[in-house]
Amino acid sequence: YVTVMRRYGTTEALLTVASEDMRRLRLLAKWLRGTGRPAEAIAVFEKILSIDADDVSTIRMLAHVSMERGDLAKARSILSRLRLIAPDREADLLEIQFEIRNQSLRQAAARIDGIPVKDTAVDHLEFLLAESLLDANEIALLRPRLAALEARLSQDRALMARIHDIRARLEQRAGNEHQYRWEIEQRDILRR
Fold first, then answer.
1. Nearest to 68 by CA among 93, 94, 43, 104
2. What is the pTM of this model?
């Protein structure tokens, strides 16, 4: 970032260089997001959408960045627009992520349960939901979800370690010190 900024000075100057070249604009937006400059990335995403208002990949990225920044009102608006343009599985997954971030945890859980094929994208949502359920102290909803995850992901050491980590924090909150230590031990074994 520093080297590029020495040459161009500002994001506006980079936008001028990228001009109306969609490939360069996408790369610039991705780069800004990756260097921890989400506000500037949003400006570039919006520039892209001013050129092509129906650019689905840009709308999706704008939804992601808005949720990451905690701008749920903007994310809701973007997701409504996405639903009209591209009502597909990826839009469904983004809406579930929005529900989790918006603390509509039971609704998100029901929608995840309705997904017939579980893949890494769904696993990501499951873990995001598990963390949110733990934060919201929704123990009754969290325990069976962790058990189902464990049954489905038992062959993946890294994901099993994550499950044990979440379960350890759950047991610690519940005051089950012995179970907490066992979960930590299992997590550490799986991380070796």
1. 94
2. 0.85
